Amino acid sequence: MRNLLTALLLSAALSLLLPGCKQDPTAQTDTPAQEPAAAGASASPGATPTPSPTPGALPRPSGPVEFSDVTAEAGLRFRHNTGAFGKKYLPETLGAGAAFLDYDGDGWQDIFLVNSTNWPEQKGGQTTPALYRNNQDGTFRDVTREAGLALPVYGIGAAAADYDNDGLTDIYVTAVGPDKLFRNAGGGKFQDVTRAAGVGDPGFGTSAAWFDYDRDGKLDLFVANYVEWSPAGDVHCTLDGTNKSYCTPQKYGGQSPTLYRNRGDGTFENATARAGLADPSNKALGVAVLDYNDDGHPDLFVANDTEPNRLYRNNGNGTFTDEALTAGVAFGETGAARAGMGVDAADYDGSGRPSLIIGNFTSERMALYRNEGNGLFTDEAQGSGIGKMSEQSLTFATFFFDYDLDGLLDIFAVNGHVSDDIQKVQPRVRYAQPPHLFRNLGRRKFEEVTALVGRALGRALVGRGAAYADYDLDGDLDVLVTSNGGPAHLYRNDNANQNDVLRLRLVGARSNRDAVGARVTARGANNFRSSNTVRTGSSYASQSELPVTLGLGRPDGTERAFTVEIVWPGGERMTLQQVKANQSLVVQEGQGITRAEPVIFARAAPTPTPAEN
After folding, report:
1. Cβ contacts of residue 3 below 8 Å, gap of 6+?
2. 3-state SS, residue 149
3. What are 62-79's pLDDT values in tens digits?
4. Where are any strands of DSSP class E within 205-298?
5. Which of 68, 132, 484, 584 is the residue whose CA sits 20 to 30 A from 602?
6. Residue 334: how many other CB atoms lie within 10 Å
């Protein structure tokens, strides 16, 4: 890869090729001011913009795609604390998630790592979550304390979005006990507004998702809760008949999820009962937002642990109806409820409909529910190839993403058992397990390529959360993984950007500012199609970046152009014609492209960290 000087020279040369485009991608925007229009940008949704040209002489990577563990050189020093001290409390098994977010508005994805902390009866200092600011050179700086986030909480998950439409990304943290809402106050600072906003859910929070369920332009919040557990109500379980082990969720009653409706004045109302979502039999670990019936209203899928999954259809009148049983996603193939963990929804088969990928317990296999388009789903895990390959894994986080930028969504899965003593009763099952990377071959088939993308990604760990983002802005998607009681790992994607790519950040006007729920599709020659949705939540207790990355496949030596179609959360449609590949675009609802910059494939080398004396 190129060094920093080469990258700077390339950037300077490219600035001469891009008249009329804003040249400083690091300019911070702390107010919801309208995005500046790029030269030739469309002034109306149906007009044809004139995108900035893509330089044809950019150096392109070559060689096999490889994920490199760059955690140390990136400056991530985080380690998750389960709080374990011999009591074997249930929450200690669940780990914690992570989120990619651009908290300072400079266009570079930062990292938020959820942490748990010590139990009240335990001696020792308290641990806090961590916020790492992207230095734009491949490294990160820990800004937790100065951001006002150094607050101990037994955290599990995170969801990040601009809930108050002020142009700044806020953070919601699920926890054992009251959840937390941190409002981004600008200037790199966050404020705990949980009490004032009315969102301090007292349950056992796991995953959460921001979405605009009533399509009023304000982001609402869905919180998945797990079981009725407390230290006082902890149950004694054992695997070997003698020593205490971690209990299964069957030993505890479930908890209802919570739906918070955004009032638009900084506060929320608990709309759970009115929406028909109050159900204490849930034992939820994952949530995905999807419009499975294509009626324009966002639905919810909830992955339950040892209870039937839920598919909540949005009725369009502020209420939901559970259709999981009739849709075929409530139970596994045997008719029994599985131990659902993480979940994601996306169009992996080019049908134009979102399907579901779900992580399950050891021996249960992952589930790949294909959306048939008639309200029904079919589990194609076995026929697709991922069923047998995931049979011995206990999968927490999982998501769809296009790791090789060929236009087909691949699958990533993070694994790790919940019992640290599992080998006493199941010698062939490991506590630490390697992740899975399944490459989409087309025609609804996958192959496992974990062993083909470098040694780093295949190393075993007690995996829990995972998220993806293009943190170094070189066009391909990198991966962040958390481990239970261990370090976080940042895996840099090298060489996938030898394929063409298009990156879009959407800005809502009538819709929520983050455009959560918008669908983006790129169409090209020979019936090429690549699509994805702006979404929060998904995975397990984690969130990937909000900008959409569309893989466009192999370059053909010409200056390729695509038609980009956007369906905004409120239903407005926008078509952008002759959009050239290898660009990073900002698209504003009602206007079109307001900023266009080329993807820089050369990665700047990080500045070495001085050795400590």
Report:
1. 604, 605
2. coil
3. 899 999 999 999 999 999
4. 205-211, 220-225, 237-238, 244-245, 258-262, 268-270, 284-290
5. 132
6. 8
- Asked which of 59-63, 187-191, 411-415, 529-533 is least confident by mean pLDDT, the reply is 59-63
Supply 491's token pair.
């895996």
**Helical (H) or strand (E) element with 389:** helix 386-389
Contact 385, 365 (CB under 8 A): no
Burial of 470 (0-12, 13-18, 19+ CB in 10 A): buried
Put simply, whether the predicted model's pTM sits higher than 0.85 gets the answer yes
Lowest mean pLDDT among 182-191, 364-373, 424-433: 424-433
H/E stretch holding 197 reads helix 194-197
Q: Does residue 4 carry a pLDDT above 90?
A: no
DSSP 543: B
Instruction: Report helix, strand or coil for 552.
Output: strand
Q: Using the 8-state DSSP alphabet, how is residue 517 labeled?
A: T
Written as six digits, the tokens of 227 are 């079981």
Question: In degrees, to the nearest 5, what angle opens at C-alpha 125 toward C-alphas 124 and 128?
Answer: 140
Do 102 and 109 touch, CB atoms closer than 8 A?
A: yes
pLDDT score, position 29: 37
Give exposure, 151-175, as e/b (b: 16+ Cβ within 10 Å).
bebbbbbbbbbbbbbbbbbbbbbbb
pLDDT value, residue 473? 97
Beta-strand relationship, 500-507 and 583-588: parallel
Distances (CA, A) of 601 to 2, 171, 535, 539, 585: 9, 31, 26, 28, 16
Average pLDDT, the chain: 90
The neighbouring-strand residues paired with 183 are 191
Please answer whether residues 328 and 369 qualify as being in contact, where contact means their C-beta atoms are separated by less than 8 angstroms: yes
Q: Give the residue from 376, 372, 370, 373 showing the smallest Cα distance to 357.
A: 370
Q: Hey, is 189 helix, strand or coil?
A: strand
C-alpha count within 13 angstroms, C-beta hemisphere, residue 20: 12
In DSSP notation, 345-369 reads: EE--SSSSS-EEEE---TTT--EEE
3-state SS class at 307:
coil
SS3 544: coil
Cβ within 8 Å of residue 208, ≥6 positions away = 157, 158, 159, 172, 174, 179, 221, 222, 223, 224, 287, 537
Enter the tokens of residue 555. 């370059």
57 token code pair: 């002489």
Q: How many CA atoms lie within 13 A of 445 on its CB side?
A: 4
For the beta sheet containing 268-270, the strands, ordered from the edge strand earlier in sequence to the opposite edge, are: 205-211, 220-225, 258-262, 268-270
**Local confidence band at 424 (pLDDT 50, 70, 90 cut-offs):** confident
Alpha-carbon dihedral 452, 379, 353, 441, rounded to 10 degrees: 30
Query: How far is the C-alpha of 93 from the C-alpha of 248, rounded, in Å?
Result: 10
Cβ(596)–Cβ(53) below 8 Å: no
Tokens matching residue 286: 């994952």
Q: How far apart are CA 421 and CA 463, in angstroms?
A: 16
**Residue 424, C-beta contacts closer than 8 angstroms, at least 6 positions apart:** 239, 240
Q: pLDDT per residue over 189-213, tens digit each?
A: 999 999 999 999 999 999 999 999 9
CB neighbours of 527 closer than 8 A, spacing ≥ 6? none
Which amino acid, 64?
P
